[in-house]
Amino acid sequence: MSLDALRDALPAYAKDLSLNLSSLAGETLLNDQQKWGTFVASAHAVGVPQVVKAIEAAAREAGLSEEAFNAAKAAAAIMGMNNVYYRALHLMENPEYRTLPARLRMNIIANPGVEKTDFEIWCTAVSAINGCGMCLDAHEGELKKRGLPNTAIQAALRIGAVVNAVSRVIAGEAAAA
User: All domains of the chain, ordered by start, with CATH?
Assistant: First the structure.
């Protein structure tokens, strides 16, 4: 399935999502690896098969390398764990938990196999999807240290938001069928 076929699969009530998906595919604030890696990481974070397949096909067509594919999927995987853990620490009233070592393996963050800035962008988008404020702040801080402008970070957030919404609509329509 292509991105156009995914857009066509959206019902009329989700026309805004279709238009946003199209405009974000042409986004220029991020380079192609950053942009398509964000799409892939976001799709894997939500995990709706039809959306994952369409976005992976579009990313392959755009030339996303196998290393970037693996790193984007790794960002979705590691943030799937970290976002739950750190969001829980943030929500719990007892501050003692924030002083304890996490004791969770996170080696991929230090050595993602692609440019660290790209991996941080993907982690930021996935953290937005998963709703972890602590992780959003941490990854946004890393991106700012690396000189990424707010508009580029916002572009990644917009991709994550649209991929999440498209995935929810596709899953909802499948459930109703």
Answer: 3-176 (1.20.1290.10)
* 132 labelled catalytic: yes
123 is catalytic: no
* CA 144/CA 116 separation, integer angstroms: 13
Q: Which of 135, 143, 156, 170 is catalytic?
A: 135
Which is the catalytic residue, given 25, 132, 148, 170? Answer: 132
User: In Å, what is the CA distance from 114 to each residue of 26, 75, 80, 83?
Assistant: 22, 11, 19, 21
Residue 87 vs residues 46, 130, 137: alpha-carbon distances, Å: 17, 9, 12
Would you state the structure tokens that stand for residue 14, as one six-digit string?
């989700």
**Amino acid letter, residue 144:** K
Q: For residues 169 and 13, give the distance between their C-alpha atoms in angstroms, rounded to a whole number.
A: 10
Predicted local confidence at residue 62, as pLDDT: 96
Would you state the pLDDT for residue 94? Answer: 96
- Cβ distance 18 to 7 under 8 Å? yes
> Phi and psi for 10 in degrees, rounded to 5?
-75, 135
Residue with tokens 């993602």: 112
